[in-house]
Amino acid sequence: CYSVVLSPETAPELVRGDLRAALESSLAGAFPALSERGISPVVELPEGPVFCLMSEPAVSRVFGNLLSNAIKYSGGDLRVSLGDNAVVLFENSAPGLDEVQVRKLFDRFYRSDAARTQSSGGCGIGLAVARSMAQANRGSLRAAYTLPHRITFTACF
After folding, report:
1. Tens-place pLDDT, residues 44-60
2. What is the CA radius of gyration of the chain?
3. What residues contact residue 127 under an 8 Å CB cut-off, 6+ apart?
4. For residue range 58-77, what is the model confidence (pLDDT) as tens digits?
């Protein structure tokens, strides 16, 4: 999957699309898994659409991977916000995570829980794929660690 994402032949076609609608759809799709984990996301969206050049499947993959990450690793909370400037924030508590680990989160095959006895079942490429997809949409994806034990992913499109 990661090789396909990086292949120049698979560069997504960018068209004018509604980032708000793509985010709403991704949140709706993740709702059952969020509910199962007891996570009630706080969602802040602008009143109307947020248009940008994008590939909806690629943007949906970015959002899906970030939501999957929150479902697996959040301490039980999630805040998602979208600005009129096409910047999306995913913020949650991250127990057991530190600043050094956050710097490695986009490395292929890195898993912050590799030493734990209970595995999340992932292989450590979800965030690397998400970053590559964001970049293929002429955007960016970064992570920041804040105290006490919180992480914020910022996706700019």
Report:
1. 999 999 999 999 999 99
2. 15
3. 65, 66, 69, 105, 106, 141, 143
4. 999 999 999 999 999 899 99
